Write the structure tokens for this entry.
Amino acid sequence: MDMGIEGRRALVCAASKGLGRACAMSLAREGVAVTITARTEATLEQTAAEIRAATGSSVTTVVGDIATEAGRAAALAACPDPDILVNNAGGPPPGDFRTWEREDWIKALDANMLTPIFLIRAVVDGMIARKFGRIVNITSASVKSPIATLGMSNGARTGLTGFVAGLARQVARHNVTINGLLPGPFLTDRLRGNAMAAAAAAGRPVDELLAERARDTPAGRVGDPAEFGDACAFLCSAGAGFIVGQNLLLDGGGFNSTL
């Protein structure tokens, strides 16, 4: 299927590994020139080299924390007029809300709510002027079904989802779409890190908990990040302009709902 986005430019945040990397790879396979950001230079450059080798597309790297003003400024300097924006940032740690201080909450909001909003503000008017824009926010399945130990993530990502619900319908007439991708259990460092914390608390092997997580999913497995990347590329395609303000859940059927 031709996505119709060859030659477009994309800014993909937190893309040195995991779901961000998968999105950048899938977009690059469609002929999109991608700018990728991450905090760790060595990992970022390795990912860029792998994407170039696999796709032949142009890859620009920006080292920095996208959740900071300096990190956003550097990313936008490298890719000031993207046709595609993929918002992504590492989630806050799990835990008991009784132990979280104000600073913990502000950090979570900065990374998982305010940073995407600031980046959207920086690029959306250019997309409107060019009559093409695709914005995808990587959030979490917890937006639809809260995860008890991820209270900060539940709150920050749901706040972003609520804001975008209104904005998406304001810009859609200009062929600019904003949608969310809500991952369930995908085989990423984030999944393994959370499983390690849970395993330590329960005094159980981490691989045992990961196997249980796979069995508990109707699909009988955890997701492959490449599947997530391809879903992102579809939402960014020229033919997806009628998908507006939606939140696509990729969780192997874990969320049990008729709608």
Summary: Residues 102-130 form the longest helix (29 residues). The mean pLDDT is 95. The first strand starts at residue 9 and ends at 12. The two ends are 28 Å apart (CA to CA).
